Amino acid sequence: MSDDQDEKRKATRHDPSRRKFLKGVGVAGAGAAIADHLIGSEKKIVASESNAAPDSVSGTVNLVLNVNGGKRSVTVEPRTTLLNALRNHAEPPVTGPKLVCDMGTCGACTVLMDGKNIYSCLVLAVDAVGKKLTTVEGLGTPENMNAVQSAFVEHDGMMCGFCTPGFVTTISAYLKKNPNPSLAEVREACKGNFCRCGTYPRVFEAALAAAKAGVRT
Ligand code: FES
Ligand code: FES
What is the pTM of this model? Predict the structure, then answer.
C-alpha cells in the first residue's frame, strides 16, 4: 500500500469510541436541539465554520430539565450527558442514577424519560429538555416508598447497591406495563441491568413481590 493510501485509510478509519460518538451526535444534534430548547442568553457556541458540520463546539448552554416533577436549571456543554448533568451540574445534585460503566452496558444510570427507561449516560442533556424525567428519587421517598422500593428492602435485594437504583427504576416502569409478570418476564425486563454482586434472585423476588403488592409510580 502506498504512503498516500495508508494516510487516507488512517484518516477514514472508523473510531467506535463512545466519546467520539457523543461528540458527533452533540455537534450534529446541537443545532436543532439548541435552537429548540436553549433558554437564557449566555450561550456561546463556537463552531469552526457556519455552513459545514463543525469540527468542534465549545462553550456552555443553559437548559431547564423537568426532573421528578420540578424544574432544574443546568449549565452544561452541549456534549454533556444527561447523567453527568444530573449528578454534577444540577443543584442540589440528583445522585440516584449511578455512574458505573458510562458506556451503555450496565443500567446503573437508568432513568425514565417520558415513562420509558433509558440509559442516562447515553442521552445528551440537550436532548432531554422538554421530556418528563423520573429518577429513583422520584419514585418514592424513604418515608413513602413505592412498592418496588419497599420490596427491595423487604427482600434484601442489594449488596453494594450500585445497581439498585437502575433495577428499581426499570422494574417500576415495567410493572406499569405488565402488572402481573412471570419470573421469566421479569428476568427479560431486567436484561439491560447488570448486578456485579450477583443479587439477581433477590432482585427478581422483590420484583414479583412488588407486582403482587401493586406498584405505583
Ligand atoms: S452507567 Fe450508563 S449504562 Fe452503565
Ligand atoms: S448489588 Fe452490587 S452491583 Fe448489584
Answer: 0.77
Report residues whose beta carbon is within 6 angstroms of any ligand 1 atom.
99-102, 104-109, 119, 121
Distance (Å) from CA 23 to ligand 1 centroid: 17
HSE toward the beta carbon, residue 192, CA cutoff 13 A: 17
Query: 186 burial class (0-12, 13-18, 19+ CB within 10 angstroms)?
Result: buried
Nearest ligand to the CA of 164 is: 2
Mutate to test the pocket of ligand 1, among 19, 87, 106, 167 (most ligand atoms within 8 A of CB): 106
Q: How does residue 216 score in pLDDT terms, banded at 50, 70 and 90?
A: low
Q: What is the pLDDT of residues 77-98, one digit of tens each?
A: 999 999 999 999 999 999 999 9
